[in-house]
Structures are given as structure tokens and as C-alpha cells.
Amino acid sequence: MSRAAEYLRAKLGQGSCRIGQVVVSKDFSLCHEEDAGRADLALSAGPHDAIAIARNDDEGKYRPLKTAPNLRHGWRLELQSLREVALALDFLYPAALGTAAEQERGALEAVNLRGTLDRQTGMYAVVKRITDAQADEVIRTVCRGQPGCLRRILWPISKERPLASGLPEGRGKGPPGKIPLLCAEACNLLVAAGRSMVKKAAA
Ligand code: SF4
Hints:
It is built from seven helices and eight strands. 34% of the residues lie in helices and 11% in strands. The longest helix has 15 residues, at 188-202. It folds into two domains: 3-104, Gyrase A, domain 2 (2-Layer Sandwich), CATH 3.30.1360.190; 113-202, Alpha-Beta Plaits (2-Layer Sandwich). The mean pLDDT is 93. A six-stranded mixed beta sheet has the order 4-5-3-2-1-7, covered by helices on one side. Strands 6-8 form a two-stranded parallel ribbon. By secondary structure, it is of the alpha/beta class. Helix 1 packs across helix 4. Residues 65, 67, 142-143, 149, 151, 153, 170, 183, 186-187, 189-190 line the site of iron/sulfur cluster.
């Protein structure tokens, strides 16, 4: 069994648990946390159905960021095993379970933003020129704007520069019974937004 599945088993051993906007029950069923108890949900029995569930929001709009707080309602997955639950969660919140498991065992290493940007090549290489102040602004817009992101940022801008004070922490830091949604490295959406900002500023 993978570390992520072991971690999930330990969490479910304490009762149902939440991750992002999803509640996972001990009987291997999942639904939107605001739908718990509803009897009129569309039932699915396969973990791969989570791909379609994660694709669009309630209005049918595409969700480019799977950890935005706009997961659609109206569905219930009734799965057969821990392995299937871990797989479905990976479609709903990519890599989140494994990241939380690594953090819990003290093995998670966050990558600072400069480290991520320094690896960009080709049309994205220009993002390396972003200033710290521009980076703060992009984070505020992409990670903490609307709709924003549920992940809790673990990385600083650089070894010397933390995130700007006043940047609200992500909403993924939950109470006991909640699996945290963590951001250990800036995602492609943030890098792309940083590139656009640098290009706009230079225009
Ligand atoms: S950089 Fe991290 S916190 Fe920001 S939007 Fe991407 S995944 Fe979410």
C-alpha cells in the first residue's frame, strides 16, 4: 500500500475526514461537504468518475485549478477500497494526499518560488525577472483572489524573502479530522500569471 493510502487509512481510522471541500466516510464514500446527508445525489461507483466531477463548477465552467473552492455539488462516489478512494482523491485534488502524508512524517521539502522560477525555460524563462513585489501581487491574485486556492502555501519567495506580511494564509490548514491541502511548490498557473505580469510591465 502506498504511503498516501496508509496515511488515509490512519485518518479514516479516526472517523470520517475532510479534504478541501470533500468529505470521505469510513464506508469509502465521498461527496461535497455541503451535500452530506442529501438523498438526491448522482451516484457513481468508479474512482475515475472523479475526473468528470472535478472538471467543471456548478455553472459548467472549466476549473483550471482543481484546488479552487468551486468544486461542483450533486454527486456521491461509492467506492470499494482505500486504494479507490486514494485514486479518486488524486483526481479531485492532485497529489494532495501524498503531500500531506509526506508533511506528517516530516519528509516534505517545499521549494521556494525563486527555485521554481529559475527552472523555467523557453517562453516561460522571462518569469525569472519578476520582482519580489510583483511576485507578492501575483500570489495575492492567483492564490488568494477569486476564486483563489484552498492550498496552504509552504514556500517563501526566496531563502531570504518570506511571503509579504499580510498575505492571508491559505484555507487548507484545517482542524483535526481534516487532511490539509498543502502547496509545496508554485503551480503552473502561478508561473504563467507571473510571466504575464513581467511581460506586461515590460510592454
Ligand atoms: S501556487 Fe499553490 S497555492 Fe497558489 S494557486 Fe497554485 S497550487 Fe494554489
